[in-house]
Amino acid sequence: MYTANNIADFFLGRYAAEGKITPMKLIKLVYIAHGWYLGLTGKALIDENPEAWKYGPVIPSVYHSYKHFKNSPIRCEHDSEVTTGSEIIDKFLDRIWKVYGKYTGTQLSAKTHMPGTPWDITWNDLKDRNRSSLQILETDIKEHYQQLASKNANG
User: Fold this and answer.
1) How many domains does the chain have?
2) 123, CA 20 to 30 Å: which among 51, 52, 56, 150?
C-alpha cells in the first residue's frame, strides 16, 4: 500500500511534462487508480480513505499538497523515471494514465459524479445511511470498480 502522495508523485513525475495536470485532475487520477486497483485486486492501493466533497471524490492529502496551484497546471521537478518500486504497480499506473490521462480534471470529475458512483452514493444518500462521515466506503468503491471491470470484460 502506498500513500496517496506517492501515487500523485508517480503521475506527476512521469506525465506532468506531457500533459497539463491540474490539482483536480491529479486528485481524480489517484482516486480512479485506487478504485480500479481495489476493484481488480480487492486490495487498497493507497492508505487513505477518499472523501465525498461537493465537487466529487477527494483525496485530502493530495488536495492539501497541491491546492496552491488552484486551477493551474502543477509545475514540478520530478524525474520522469519516477517509480513506485514495483514494476507491476508502475505498469498498472501507466495503464491508468493511458486510459484517463487524456481527460481534463473537469471531465474526470464528471465521470466520478455519475449516478450510482461511490461519490454519488455517499454524497446524496448520506442521510439515508445515518453516517456522520463523508468518507467514501471502501466497499462502495470496490463494488463500483468490480462492476465496471465486469462490463468491460463482457463487451
Assistant:
1) 1
2) 150
